[in-house]
Design a protein that fits this description.
By secondary structure, the chain is mainly beta. It has one domain: Beta-galactosidase, Chain A, domain 5 (Distorted Sandwich). Helix content is 6%, strand content 44%. Strands 5, 10, 11, 13, 14, 17, 20, 21 and 24 form a nine-stranded antiparallel sheet that branches. A hairpin with a 5-residue loop joins strand 8 and strand 9 (149-158). The longest helix has 9 residues, at 6-14.
């Protein structure tokens, strides 16, 4: 056997070989991306983002974790993906085994690429196959160096021999202790309606963010979740090119936010849940639909406020959608977010003018966020 040249031998020694960054957390296979600022954890048994927090602060906004009889099986938690649908299957689909919100949170995800650090970037790629839906999902996650901004890109491919409708909704779910009655949710939603109206016109009566109407016709401020959670699911259109939603807990000095291109996700969907008179969960959801119904009803209805309620993938066709998430430290007297702006390498968060109107900036240098 011919010996390796000295230079090649040195390269083998000096260049680290990164193992797959799969680890077990509570007996569950997980991906951990962590640097000196932030820690991001993806649960591979369901693909959920189960943890996103500052390294020096244990509080995790995405700690919503419903009980399960088998804690090692695929399940949804924290921020999960609804695919190929948002909401219930039809009666016939349910009888054939299609789960609520689709299969993406009910299958194992494979960690395909090693975690690597180009320029300090943490990056990983994972895939999942949805057998009943006939879809494949490819996801790339990037955590910016020395920053608390993460970028997620997801490509859905129709592996069926025929085209089909589908929906794709991101379901970030916040829970106590981050979620309190004082936690403030802000967004750039526009015109909205409450789920559960009489079909085929569930959008009547309509309202405008942050207001909603409960079953008694009373105005509810959706920025807060107090003892009464009705209406529990409301959907809003977004008129701006970039949609955004934030949740701020001034008592903890912490804000989590999301932003995305509206062309990818034209709907903002807010879920609210109380238990024993206290806030239990809030879904900061955004996606391709605003109607929480099976496909036959979506197809019959077609559009609400002129916006589509489903998308279509032809045979072997793919669609790519992106979003970003971030963490921000805030003062204890923070009054909420007025607006969110993007520059070439920074997120600019403007506090509400009914507070102190302060500005906060977060760098995402190294991420290619061109929405």
């Amino acid at each position: 056997m011919k010996p390796l040249p000295v230079i090649k031998l040195l390269l083998i020694i000096l260049i680290p070989i990164h193992p797959l960054a799969e680890t077990l957390i509570g007996g569950r296979p997980s991906l951990v991306l962590e640097h000196e600022q932030a820690r991001l954890v993806v649960d591979l048994a369901g693909g959920s983002f189960r943890e996103f927090r500052f390294v020096d602060q244990p509080l995790n906004p995405l700690n919503w974790n419903p009980p399960a009889s088998n804690q090692t099986s695929p399940m949804v938690m924290g921020h999960f993906l609804c695919l190929d649908r948002w909401g219930p299957p039809s009666k016939a689909e349910g009888a054939n085994g299609m789960p609520y919100h689709g299969e993406a949170g009910k299958v194992l995800w494979n960690l395909d690429d090693e975690v690597h650090q180009p320029g300090g970037m943490l990056q990983a790629r994972m895939t999942a196959t949805l057998p009943m839906a006939g879809l494949k999902i490819d996801r790339t996650v990037q955590l910016a160096p020395r920053s608390t901004v993460a970028l997620v890109s997801e490509t859905v491919t129709n592996q069926n021999a025929l085209g089909r409708p589908y929906n794709m909704v991101q379901h970030p779910s916040i829970a106590p202790p981050f979620l309190q009655e004082s936690t403030i949710v802000d967004a750039n939603g526009r015109k909205g309606f409450a789920q559960g109206g009489t079909l085929p016109f569930p959008e009547t009566p309509s309202f405008y963010w942050p207001q909603a109407l409960n079953r008694d016709g009373e105005i509810v401020n959706l920025r807060y979740l107090t003892t009464h959670h009705q209406p529990n699911v409301v959907s809003f259109t977004i008129d701006d090119p970039i949609g955004w939603v934030t949740a701020a807990s001034p008592n903890h000095g912490l804000l989590i936010g999301y932003f995305w291109p509206t062309k990818d996700y034209p709907w903002l969907d807010i879920w609210r849940h109380s238990a024993e008179g206290k806030p239990a969960a809030r879904g900061l959801e955004f996606g391709t639909t605003g109607l929480h119904q099976p496909f036959p009803i979506l197809m019959e209805k077609g559009r609400i406020f002129g916006r589509k309620l489903f998308e279509y993938l032809d045979a072997n066709q793919s669609a790519t959608k992106r979003y970003a998430t971030f963490l921000l430290r805030i003062p204890s007297d923070f009054s909420g977010v007025e607006k969110l702006d993007l520059t070439e390498d920074r997120i600019e968060v403007q506090e509400r003018q009914d507070g102190k109107g302060r500005s906060f900036s977060i760098s995402f240098e190294g991420l290619d966020i061109r929405f």
